[in-house]
Amino acid sequence: MDQSYNNISDKDVFEILGISSKEDYFTNLLAETFNLSGNQEFRDRFCNMLSNDSFKIFNSADCRIHTRSVFYIDNIYGNGNRSKVLPDMILISSSQYKVVVIENKIFSDEGYKQTIAYSSPMLRSELNKLLETDGKNEVQVEFYYMTLLGEKANSENFKPLKWTNFIIKTCSNIIFKSPFDILTKDLLSRANELKDFINAPIDLNKSFSDYYNQHKRWIEPKTAYMKYFDPIFTDIYSKYNGKVETFVTKAKGRTPQLLILFSTNDWRRNDLEGYKNGNPIELFENTRNIHLEFTWHVGMADASFMIHYETNPYYSYKKFKQLYPEVEPLYKKHRESFKKDIKQVVTFSRYWKEANTVLALAKTSCKGFMNLPFNDFQKWFFNAFDEAYHMIDKVIESEI
């Protein structure tokens, strides 16, 4: 069977079925393998991966996994309505009064405060009802957030669970009953390939396009992008006193947009949340969040780099004017003054030029980002970054 399968295609079953980036199918496979395979070693390994010093599952035979069970809780907006929540996997041990909630995000990002809702006291109460404890036994609940690279959830109650480690430790050297055997072999193969990808250094002669195309059968552009930028993030952390944030956004009908934001404490000033608490307006007239923003739309040849000047926290201009009508003209005055000073220093820049948009003060672009060798791109990025960093600091120092 294995030989004939290999003769058909170099693709694995998930690719042939067109579900290689559908995390629900991977969730279902793990749950059904656990529930139906009858393989005690796999079940034991699975439960061991979810155990720790304060939470141990002693009898895996007593456990069952439920997928996307529906619960209704008070919603996170606090408007009195109820929200429907569907955690990806819930492992339940009725006799041990233990529950593990696993949220699978190997191919997607967390929804708005999703894990905060999933670990809320109200959901815990619903889990108690599910086990029908009647208050006689306390239910222990653990939360895990499964991702490709071990990212953290918004809720601190969720422990990160790296998908590669989980699959390799639970599936290696185990023979399952058909059809699970071939599927878990492919799953294990993917996990090992991803592990090699994570551990391998970046080839300085490869472009992002080369790098992504080599691995796109099992990773999204976001994952390749984050890995590709790891060396750059490391250098930024070590050389500059600031904060790096990464985001993925997607407008309807458009490809995902990947962003890197960099700012320092000196670049951020006068959080408007304090103004709501009755503090005098003079403290907030110069509210600002200056940051560098590197942006790439997935699939586009070029990438853009901008110096942004926004309110702190960010509001659209229309919303800001509506919420803070008395602060808006003062903010506008300070922003125009800063923009004028930036314009003067940009005149002498090798990389940057003035930008006339609502948010950006200056801009540059990396032509052919997709096809630039990493070594060349890294040099361009750091030269442009360093120049912008010192331009901003120079203007801020002149204000003092």
UniProtKB/TrEMBL annotation:
One family name in Pfam for this protein: PDDEXK_4
Domain of life: Bacteria
Record-given protein name: PD-(D/E)XK nuclease superfamily protein
Source organism of this protein record: Alkalibaculum sporogenes
